[in-house]
Amino acid sequence: MSIATIFGDMKRKLNFFIRLALILLLPAMVWSCNKDPFRVDVSSNKVTISITRFEDMLFSSDPSKIEQLIPKWDKELGIFFRHFCQITGIGSIDNPEFATRFKAFASSYHNYLIYSRVKDIFPDLSKLNTELNDAFSYYHHYFPDMPIPRVVTYVSGFNQSAITDDSLLAVGLDKYLGRNEELYRQLGIYNYLLTNMYPEKIASDCVSFWGETEFPFNDSINNLITNMIYRGKLLYFTSALLPEQSDSVKWGFTGSDLKYFNTAEKAMWAFLVEHKLLFSTDKLTINKYVLEGPFTKDFGRGSPARAAVWIGYRIVESYMQKNRNLTLAQLMEEDDYMKILNQSAYNP
């Protein structure tokens, strides 16, 4: 065999191995470039949350002993108990009529009926407990020095979905009975509100409520674009703590909503820019684009509500992609919303 033949075989083999190496490396290179920023290892940051079910404590108690239990609950539940009494209309514990009013709430047939439905839908909270343990394990990973909240559930007679305070996260289970709940129909709750009143939505709502409590809106510049970006940060925060949940569940948009947004993103942004709405400080204008409703009026009856919030998320997402060295903690602590907009180079 000639030397030329030997070298020819070596060259062909070398080329083969080079091509093989490239084929094997390509998926890893693509994965590295497109790595999901929310996929992180939290195995060393696991937390365990114990949920206190105040609705059981309240509605399973002997009504004749309620007055004696009030001081006990006030001591054990602290700020939650005070907040609960305010949102239910019972009032201040210092009011001379407080005990009478509290007993009336606890012995109300209407409230007990609601509690019965809550027990039907939530005989136990093991699934929610697992979801919150996972979510706050991510939270502890990103914010190791921040406190993990105490979690309490309650029934408030459909008064309020959540109560948050320093180290407290409480959720009203009666606001998550399901989209087809007959009690909601009897109350005449609008369909667009019913969309997110179902059990699977509790965990993401809890995360969003907590994010809003720990990282409040900087209202020194209160206009549409700052509201969009702030609420977009909350969506990003929720995604980071619930990476396994679908976008439609954790953000409260339906699949068709998300499809609309992806199709109309450029047109929606162009409308806001062309009509000089981004820097509007008019509260009605801001609310029209960021709050719940049947649709976003200026984008047409087929458009989902809170469309501008989704655009806010896209701006935040772009900002984080352009600044890959930033942590979630740095994002949430950044309240210069114009800096986020400018550095995002957002251009749908």
Description:
The termini are far apart. The chain has two domains: 49-214, no CATH class; 224-344, no CATH class. It is globular, with a radius of gyration of 26 Å. The chain has a four-stranded mixed beta sheet with strand order 1-2-4-3, with helices on both faces. A hairpin with a 2-residue loop joins strand 3 (162-165) and strand 4 (168-172). It has helices at 3-33, 54-59, 66-77, 79-87, 98-106, 109-121, 126-142, 182-187, 191-194, 202-214, 224-241, 247-251, 255-274, 283-290, 307-322, 328-333, 337-344; strands spanning 51-53, 150-154, 162-165, 168-172. With 348 residues, the protein is mostly helical.
In short:
The chain is mainly alpha-helical. It folds into two domains: 166 residues, no CATH class; 121 residues, no CATH class.
How is the topology of this model organized?
Blueprint: H1 3-33, E1 51-53, H2 54-59, H3 66-77, H4 79-87, H5 98-106, H6 109-121, H7 126-142, E2 150-154, E3 162-165, E4 168-172, H8 182-187, H9 191-194, H10 202-214, H11 224-241, H12 247-251, H13 255-274, H14 283-290, H15 307-322, H16 328-333, H17 337-344
Parallel strand pairs: 1-2, 2-4
Antiparallel strand pairs: 3-4
Helix pairs in contact: 7-10, 10-11, 11-14, 11-15, 11-17, 13-15, 15-17
